[in-house]
Recover the amino acids of this structure.
């Protein structure tokens, strides 16, 4: 009986070792990195060791994934991913939803949007999807009118009506918090806002609506989506522990979307 028990323990240990996996997951700074660190804690007892790799921009994480330098990433919404795959030929696939981070408008000069004057300087992201997202927010606020048919990726060239004569500064998304001293308003993604000490709920003077289509996702290379570690990664992210962390850490500024 002792020998049988010992053999069973050895087999169980071997099975655990067999299924153990080490992966690298690319994230952007701020909430994506912080949440993935919590995911890593949940995943470790499940046999998945996650090395969280931070990237300072929105382009490199998909390049690194396509090149095999990392095994997954978690930093982007679907419209951005679709645009990247179209423009750069990446063969990537979504395996799970993560969070929604409403884009906000910030200002060191204004207390509310009513104070925005004619000819104001407006800083927005310079990548097509997040720049378009910023313009759609301005349209929702009645500040510009965009040409019909531009979908989720309008550019400043698609502005049909700009009654205040707003002047647009198109900059790398990570640099936008630094423009607050110069621009009248800056439209900033939540991860870069939080990383710069801005609280989206208390510091923004306008926010996207809650029904935004910009749900963030976990992405892997096509062909990897059915590997066992992918299922474990998604299960760990969607755990009650991670959900509780998000709710407590961000107080509604980051919304769980699964």
């Amino acid at each position: 009986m002792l020998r049988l028990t010992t053999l069973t323990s050895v087999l169980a240990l071997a099975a655990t070792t067999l299924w153990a996996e080490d992966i690298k997951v690319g994230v952007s700074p701020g909430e994506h990195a912080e949440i993935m660190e919590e995911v890593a804690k949940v995943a470790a007892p499940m046999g998945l060791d996650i090395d969280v790799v931070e990237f300072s921009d929105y382009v490199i994480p998909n390049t690194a994934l396509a090149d095999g330098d990392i095994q997954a990433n978690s930093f982007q919404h679907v419209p951005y991913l679709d645009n990247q795959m179209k423009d750069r030929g990446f063969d990537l696939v979504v395996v799970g939803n993560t969070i929604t981070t409403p884009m906000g408008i910030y200002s060191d000069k204004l207390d509310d949007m009513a104070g925005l004057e004619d000819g104001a300087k407006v800083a927005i992201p310079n990548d097509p999807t997040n720049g378009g997202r910023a313009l759609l927010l301005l349209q929702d606020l009645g500040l510009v009118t965009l040409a019909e048919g531009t979908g989720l990726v309008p550019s400043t060239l698609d502005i049909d009506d700009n009654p205040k004569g707003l002047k647009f500064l198109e900059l790398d998304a990570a640099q936008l918090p630094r423009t607050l001293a110069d621009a009248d308003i800056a439209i900033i993604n939540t991860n870069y806002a939080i990383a710069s000490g801005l609280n989206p709920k208390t510091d923004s003077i306008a926010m996207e609506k809650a029904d935004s289509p910009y749900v963030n996702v976990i992405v892997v290379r096509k062909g990897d989506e059915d590997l066992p570690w992918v299922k474990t990664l998604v299960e760990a992210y969607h755990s009650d522990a991670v959900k509780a962390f998000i709710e407590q850490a961000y107080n509604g500024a980051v919304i769980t979307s699964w």
